[in-house]
Design the sequence.
């Protein structure tokens, strides 16, 4: 309730939230450039009745509250970047980011439910919210654990000039 | 021959299974019938994680919820008849069932719970009868149950949750979704669903519809067109798409025939899919021995269907004297609370209002 979404462009027209919409939403907080740990970033701006992000977080760093249609809010001071919420979110709307992984590389860990999965060390195309390839990344880790119930979490480094733009990777061609 | 059972549940999808389980847990003797060869309804093609809270099994995939419900039904020794078509209900109690397409069985039930579900709506356009045009739910059955990708290049008509979830699952199955078109000026489904389809590179076209499908013996291409404010095609905005499959996700209509043939009073609810049986908060229809649950009572989603099923099962068992008042009151309030939570927010509020209107009409 009480969630107003800027209508001109973005989510309900293109399918993807625009940066303006994200910046207006309380749920979206890009981890600041000087933060050392990974931080959870949530792109869930509509108030759908859902709260596994909150109940899965071992730190109590994500709050939805009693009304399950409240927008989730991350307390980055409490968030350790463990990534449990990334696979717990049924909407695949959470990823982890940090600005400085090393030199001029940023770090992202995002949910991925396509096959084939990428492999460690592979160079992959990184996409923005509209699905356009904006840069390349290097796969650091592919996390496939039972607890994540068939949602892989892919850890990638990519140029930090694309820090905010990148949200996921381009699907790989079938083998 | 007339058999007797206390409660007969028609339809073993999420609503019917939940109703049967809830009633059986109280001690009532339940018969669950389904016309299909396998129980579960649409749950086993829901390979995505469900929304909601822990109480709604949020984060669990539909297939896994289905597996658990079937295990529970087995543990409770619920009698299940598959390949059993219910053809009619007489005298508000006698259920006419054809088993295995071979023989008729009549079952006299003290209570009947109808959980018959819904059927996909069609959209008609030149070429819509070509092979390759199908319901989005049909495509989902093919990829997720039968593991057959019905085409290579897809056009999705409709951007509600069914349209965007099936688009995502077609991508997961290795398909190429060329476009999702939506006749309304805004996309219908949850933004988190549209966002994951969009970042996979699938374009959305709002205020667009399909004009035509072409092909000799199957779909070889399609033309989409932009619509003006009065939903009329705008000449000159036609766009040809290289697709071999067109999926239609234009909403669902409740399967109400059994209820209405049995004499249940109807009520019209455009938001919930059209004509539905009038019902009260306990899911009881105008015929006191007949309850409903799930999409037959208004099209929503599996999570709400399961809650309505629990409600109907509990109330039907209670009306037979199976549940003590405290357990009943507590169970009723808990199920209603969980349902209200699902019917909240910018998406759920409209459904909550539509449901409230049906119940108010019933009381008024």
Sequence:
């Amino acid at each position: 309730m009480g969630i107003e979404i800027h209508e001109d462009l973005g989510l309900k027209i293109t399918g993807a939230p625009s940066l303006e919409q994200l910046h207006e939403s309380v749920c979206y907080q890009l981890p600041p450039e000087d933060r050392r740990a990974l931080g959870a970033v949530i792109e869930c701006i509509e108030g759908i009745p859902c709260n596994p992000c909150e109940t899965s977080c071992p730190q109590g760093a994500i709050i939805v509250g009693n009304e399950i249609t409240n927008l989730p809010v991350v307390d980055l001071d409490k968030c350790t970047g463990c990534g449990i919420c990334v696979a717990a979110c049924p909407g695949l709307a959470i990823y982890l980011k940090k600005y400085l992984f090393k030199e001029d590389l940023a770090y992202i860990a995002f949910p991925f439910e396509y096959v084939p999965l990428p492999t460690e060390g592979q160079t992959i195309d990184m996409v923005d919210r509209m699905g356009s390839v904006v840069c390349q990344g290097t796969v650091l880790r592919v996390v496939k654990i039972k607890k994540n119930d068939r949602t892989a979490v892919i850890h990638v480094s990519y140029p930090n000039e694309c820090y905010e733009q990148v949200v996921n990777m381009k699907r790989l061609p079938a083998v | 021959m007339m058999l007797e059972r206390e409660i007969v549940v028609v339809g073993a999808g999420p609503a019917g299974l939940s109703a049967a389980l809830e009633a059986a847990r109280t001690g009532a003797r339940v018969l669950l019938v389904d016309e299909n060869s396998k129980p579960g309804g649409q749950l086993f093609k829901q390979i995505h994680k469900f929304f909601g809270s822990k109480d709604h099994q949020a984060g669990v995939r539909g297939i896994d919820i289905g597996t658990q419900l079937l295990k529970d039904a087995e543990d409770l020794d619920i009698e299940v008849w598959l390949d059993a078509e219910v053809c009619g209900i007489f005298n508000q109690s006698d259920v006419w069932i054809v088993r295995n397409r071979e023989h008729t069985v009549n079952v006299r039930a003290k209570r009947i719970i109808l959980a018959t579900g819904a059927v996909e709506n069609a959209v008609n356009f030149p070429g819509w009868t070509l092979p390759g045009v199908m319901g989005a739910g049909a495509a989902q059955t093919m990829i997720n149950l039968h593991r057959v990708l019905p085409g290579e290049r897809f056009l999705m008509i409709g951007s509600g949750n069914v349209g965007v979830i099936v688009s995502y699952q077609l991508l997961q199955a290795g398909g190429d979704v060329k476009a999702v078109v939506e006749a309304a000026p805004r996309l219908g489904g949850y933004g988190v669903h549209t966002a994951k389809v969009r970042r996979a590179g699938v374009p959305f076209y709002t205020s667009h519809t399909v004009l035509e499908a072409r092909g000799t013996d199957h779909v070889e291409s399609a033309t989409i067109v932009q619509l003006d404010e009065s939903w009329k095609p705008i000449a000159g905005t036609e766009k040809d798409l290289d697709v071999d499959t067109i999926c239609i996700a234009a909403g669902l209509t409740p399967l109400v025939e059994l209820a209405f043939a049995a004499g249940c009073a109807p009520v019209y609810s455009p938001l919930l899919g059209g004509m539905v049986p009038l019902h009260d908060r306990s899911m009881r229809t105008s015929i006191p021995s007949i309850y409903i649950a799930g999409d037959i009572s208004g099209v929503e989603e599996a999570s709400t269907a399961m809650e309505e099923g629990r409600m109907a099962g509990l109330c039907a068992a209670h009306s037979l004297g199976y549940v003590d008042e405290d357990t009943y009151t507590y169970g009723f309030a808990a199920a209603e609370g969980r349902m209200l939570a699902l019917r909240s927010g910018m998406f759920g509020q409209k459904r909550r209002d539509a449901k409230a209107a049906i119940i108010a009409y019933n009381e008024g």
Chain A is about 10% helix and 30% strand. The helical segments of chain A are 11-14, 19-24, 52-56, 84-88. The longest helix of chain A spans residues 19-24.
